[in-house]
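Changelog entry

Holo records now carry the ligand SMILES as an explicit input line rather than a separate metadata file. Below, a converted record for fe (ii) ion, shown in the new format.
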Amino acid sequence: MATNNHEIFKAVLEQIPEGMIIVDDNDTIIFVNRAAEEIRRIQADQAIGRSVVLCHPEKSFKKVQRALQFLKKDETKTFTRMIRDTVKNRYYENTYTAVRDTNNYIGAVVISRDITERRKIEEEKTAYLQNLEEKVAELTGKLQDLFISSMTSLVNALEAKDPYTKGHSLRVCDMAMKMAEHRYGVSQKVKEVELSSKLHDIGKVGIREIVLNKPEKLTDEEFNHIKEHPIIGEKILMPIEKLKSPAKAARHHHERFDGTGYPDGLKGEEIPESSRVISIVDTYDAMTSARPYRPPMKAEKAAEEIKKNLGIQFDPQWGEMFLDLFYSGSIG
Ligand SMILES: [Fe+2]
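Structure line, unchanged by the conversion:
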């Protein structure tokens, strides 16, 4: 009966789809099943009785010896490695298990499982996910662009309702971009200044229209209400990833270089660069536009005002550049 059982065990091990090689405690191969013959391109009758190390190509001897040493350590039970057969272009997962008789190492078994199909599915899944991520990123970008153009339209619509402010943000944007291009050439900075200047007054959508379009002098309460627009603007733009910098630029476009502006009283270069640029052209455009209570100021007079306020209200370096571009007829 014992012999029969032994035969059954042997037949089972011979026929399982996984490759199986068993070595004794001297690293001598004592069993190779059919699948292992196929996977490793060896013959059982030639391999059995030989050292498992010698059944490998010479360049792998050291590695195989290290693996065997590792298996013989008391704490090692099992480990797996992924092996690629470059000839057949198939992938195998080899599981190496130390076999112990109570405490003594008596040999090891290596089971090779063909995982080519599983890997193929994983590769397809990864490619699919990558593709999906790219599509989501593309769509997110498009959505953000849509948001930006909606916000730009909103600013323009808001300004168009009042003949005194009509086209203000577009003019500010045009001048701010000329300045940024003059300094940076083709650069992401220019794009940032463009978005920031186009949207700097978006917060005015949160200001009561009666206050916004009031032709007479504003009361303190009304003026304080208007002064909320940079903060409202930041809140509107902040949730959009692409508008993080323009959101900050909107918050700080009424700061003054000497620190006496609002909302945070930032000074000098603490003020974002886009805000320092916007501040100059925003003021220039306001001065040269008509108001219900005054005619538009002459361009040269407005440029004089900018000059007088360099280092006080305006960044002197950006201000000098504005004046350069103004006197050379490139701006304003
Ligand atoms: Fe403003």
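Spot-checked after migration. The pocket of fe (ii) ion is lined by residues 201, 229, 253-254 (CB under 6 Å). Strands lie at 19-24, 29-32, 78-85, 90-101, 104-114.
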